[in-house]
Structure of PLP-dependent aminotransferase family protein:
Amino acid sequence: MTASEIRALFAVASRPEVVSLAGGMPNLAALPLDALSVEVADLVAREGQVALQYGSAQGVPALREQICEVMRLEGVNADPNDVVVTVGSQMALDLVTRIYCDPGDVVLAEGPSYVGALGSFAAYQARVVHVAMDADGLIPEALRDALRTLGAQGITPKFLYTIPNFHNPAGVTLAVERRSEVLEICAEYGVAVIEDNPYGLLGFSGRVYPALRSMDPGVVYLGSFSKTFASGLRVGWALVPPAVRDRLVLAAESATLCPPSFNQMLVSRYLEGHDWRSQIKTFTEVYRDRRDALLSALETYLPEGCSWNVPDGGFYVWLTVPEGVDTKAMLPRAVTARVAYASGTGFYADGLGSRQLRLSYCYPTPERITEGVRRLAAVLEAELDVMRTFGSPVRSASPPPAVGRGPQTPSPDTA
Ligand SMILES: Cc1ncc(COP(=O)(O)O)c(C=O)c1O
């Protein structure tokens, strides 16, 4: 295991003078905290004996039913018996990897991919093969090519790990017409599909995409209340085929005995007694304003040679900087200039991403976002100045082709 770059960064980036565009912290200011505090007090007063006690390893039954209701918005028809509540979807990711993978096994993941997933894969010594994306998400042909190449070496990956909606970190969404194709290719090669979907309900146009799980009951679906309600409660879930469920419950039991009863019951009360759908709408309105502030600041301040995607939901913009700039090497200078981002290499298992960085617009206010981008642009200009004077100080091993300025597909080396 290695310390995640992002975790190390959190310590510095959380200083108040630094505008952090690094972490993916949801904006909890939009939550009805007064109403929730009444709910918390009532939960302790009326159901404290249960809420403060151990519970079932699979999770509170009423919540598992409500989770099925949430997933129905994405076309998923699920049985509450196949839902396992976990301590955030991160725990589900960890347990699923533990169940599926032995050391040395290969898993497929988009390039770039979620850093927490890469951490779990590394912890179980699974080898990650990245599959390219473009503006429409995972490229089916690239998936087929990867499977063909691995097949020629006698390797069948244990699963494809994919984030179809409002990808972290690439910000893109898998086109609807690609969804069944991806499933068909995986079925053809006998590869399981893990669908990680914490952002699916956070689309800015209000559009909800059909989950891969809605098209194939064999898909393992991971969900979370972290982004649609409260990340600190650490309540997520896995919807798994019955054959996997019992092993997942055993693995969950060995990890935590049971997920926290109190937190699950609070989420359950919230879903029951509050208009969670309009709360999600409120969240998306806040995030859309922040995305707009970020995009407009990027257009205004960034130098020539930068490109980025335009996310239609979720938290992230994936930025490619001019050739010769190394985003990891630049980060200390950016933090000194009081702006933080997540450098691209942390999102790849194979060392790519040195010309990319992730900007999160979920947490800072629009004014802070604008100021952060202004500072980032000044740091980039200074890097480019040094390069113009002395030549390129740090180059990536195989620099991706130069691109024009402005909104583009996620990144040249992922296309
Ligand atoms: C793609 C993805 N999967 C999983 C998680 C983990 O979420 P949770 O808070 O449910 O553990 C995150 C958190 O940022 C994420 O971005």
